[in-house]
């Protein structure tokens, strides 16, 4: 068993492909700074250095988010909740437990439940074993439950949770009806007076619209350009008491 919790690299395949594309453009530019086809000479330096720089920088920023930025972002999300310690918490798309464990550490008599379908391409080492290991290392086993469940069809009764959290999960549902269904489920399982704090890099206004349709009151936060990449936006949704 590892000694330190490992919260994984988000979208590892995307990061790998960005670095590969950057290195490809860089190598071609350095190996063939000028290419002549017929009578036309193409200058690959600096021409190919721009896409090389773009791909490598984008990959590096995504990696920095996974290694450092996401911990700051987690604190930012959790700070939106007026914790008492007694909350029933749901983390939708818990992955390796970034929010689930962060929330569990704020609980005394409360309980945190994480659901996920464990998509390997969304997070490195994604799976219940990795999450269980992190939970044990962080010492929150008694306050957490993990379930293999889809955000679009949750098994919980209506009004089960005081707090629902979700980071970078819902955009992985690739069709709009599916994302709408997940938002409706989040609204359904929230208790009256409960709060949902949802963060993603796209579709956030769409989530806000769905929460409104489902009777929640919305507060959209500005994009966070400091330490998240792609920049993440938080929507806070409250169910009237
Ligand atoms: C990029 S990871 C983020 C994990 C975690 N929330 C974090 O911030 O570190 C996205 C997670 O959402 C999960 N996921 C994707 N679609 C889902 C769905 N329909 N229902 C539940 N989880 C889902 C993936 O398996 C993955 O663990």
Offer a concise description of the structure.
With about 240 residues, this protein is of the alpha/beta class. The protein has seven helices and nine strands, in the order H-E-E-H-H-E-H-E-H-E-E-H-E-H-E-E. The protein is about 40% helix and about 20% strand.
Polypeptide structure, described:
The model has no long low-confidence stretch (mean pLDDT 96). 38% of the residues are buried. The protein has a 7-stranded mixed sheet with strand order 5-4-3-6-7-9-8, with helices on both faces. A two-stranded antiparallel ribbon has the order 1-2. The chain is built from 7 helices and 9 strands; from the N terminus they run αββααβαβαββαβαββ. It starts with 11 loop residues before the first helix and ends with a strand. The protein has helices spanning 12-31, 44-47, 49-78, 98-104, 128-138, 176-189, 204-213; strands at 34-37, 40-43, 88-92, 111-116, 144-148, 161-167, 190-200, 217-220, 233-238. It is of the alpha/beta class and 241 residues long. The protein folds into 2 domains: 12-68; 80-238, Vaccinia Virus protein VP39 (Rossmann fold, 3-Layer(aba) Sandwich). Helix 1 (12-31) runs antiparallel to helix 3 (49-78) and helix 6 crosses helix 7. The structure holds S-adenosylmethionine. S-adenosylmethionine binds at residues 7, 10, 93-95, 98-99, 115-119, 122-123, 126, 150-152, 167-169, 172-173.
């Amino acid at each position: 068993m590892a000694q330190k919790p490992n919260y994984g690299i988000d979208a590892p395949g995307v990061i790998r492909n960005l670095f590969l594309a950057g290195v490809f453009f860089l190598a071609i530019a350095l190996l063939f700074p000028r290419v002549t086809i017929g009578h036309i000479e193409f200058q690959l330096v600096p021409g190919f250095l721009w896409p090389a720089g773009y791909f490598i920088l984008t990959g590096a920023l995504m990696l920095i988010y996974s290694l450092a930025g996401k911990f700051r972002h987690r604190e930012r999300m959790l700070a939106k909740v007026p914790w008492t310690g007694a909350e029933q918490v749901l983390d939708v798309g818990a992955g390796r437990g970034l929010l689930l464990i962060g929330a569990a550490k704020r609980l005394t008599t409360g309980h945190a439940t994480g659901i996920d379908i464990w998509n390997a391409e969304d997070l490195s080492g994604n799976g219940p074993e990795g999450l269980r290991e992190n939970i044990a290392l962080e010492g929150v086993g008694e306050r957490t439950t993990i379930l293999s469940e889809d955000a679009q069809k949750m098994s919980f009764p209506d009004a089960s949770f005081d707090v629902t959290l979700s980071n970078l999960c819902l955009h992985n549902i690739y069709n709009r009806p599916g994302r709408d269904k997940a938002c409706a489920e989040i609204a359904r399982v929230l208790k009256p007076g409960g709060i949902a704090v949802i963060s993603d890099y796209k579709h956030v206004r769409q989530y806000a619209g769905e929460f409104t349709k489902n009777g929640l009151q919305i507060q959209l936060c500005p994009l966070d350009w400091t330490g998240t990449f792609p920049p993440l936006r938080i929507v806070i949704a409250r169910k009237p008491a």
